[in-house]
Amino acid sequence: MKKQTTGIHHITAIVGHPQENIDFYAGVLGLRLVKKTINFDDPETYHLYFGDGSGNPGSIITFFPWANAYQGRIGDGQVGVTTYVVPAGALDFWKNRLLKFEIEYMEAKRFGETYLQFDDPHGLHLEIVERGDGALDPWTFGGISKDVAIKGFGGATLYSVHPEETAATLVNVMGLEIVGTEGDYTRFKATAEIGNIIDVKMTTGVRGTMGVGTVHHIAWRANDAKDHREWQNYAMNQGQHVTEIKDRNYFDAIYFRESGEILFEIATDPPGFAHDETYEIMGNQLMLPEQYEHLRDRLEKSLIPIEVRPLD
Q1: Which domain holds residue 245?
Q2: Dihedrals φ, ψ of 193, to 5°?
Q3: Would you say residue 308 lies in a domain?
Q4: CATH code of the domain containing 55
């Protein structure tokens, strides 16, 4: 039985100072900090989750912020560009907002769409595109109304060590459809309304190196625990070296590094981000998994103080 993911669940990246990270993604881009927790594999480090107001899959970008850590290099074997989608007609608002915060951007065209391309403070490549698909996000922050607010991911551009093999994995393992080729890029599409467009750069360049300003992995959606177990067996049967299922509290996860050396995760949509704190207050408190609750006092003292704040 062939399986098909509906699209991106989340994207996880490595960045620098956590307050700079919050100021950009909440203060400039207007995303909601939906969860403030720790890296379960490195509890001395935050794990910060930003997304739409409800923390829906397809809108979540997560960060491991390492202040004063070494800079990475974006290149082959990584997600090269993360794309955000905004409502039709919102691009002029975002041009003005980027100018207001002195963020340099370029305009580019790809597959008949116009993109605003820019970097976050730590070097991650981002872009914004208009599309009609996807619900408006009622979450408002920093003077951004729902009529122009980011709806979630438009998708991502993958830089692969072996682009043809990555393309084959997207089709034969993840179930995406090829929709076209333009210049160096082949475009793939999943079935969700957001987080559904993947462009693969079909030429190679410099190898990426992990560090600040690079994406650690891209996660794809599984419907539930049953579907997730099926994905684990299916990916194994397709020749992928898949990990055991890991409990990440807000979703279950499996991982494999596809042949183009990009780390793929498959994550469950449930239970989501409101199961351990209510929708109204999620993101306000440091949330710890049970195995680290006994370290709360120490962690609250050692972690860098952070806050979500509107920017002038």
Answers
A1: 8-302
A2: -80, -25
A3: no
A4: 3.10.180.10
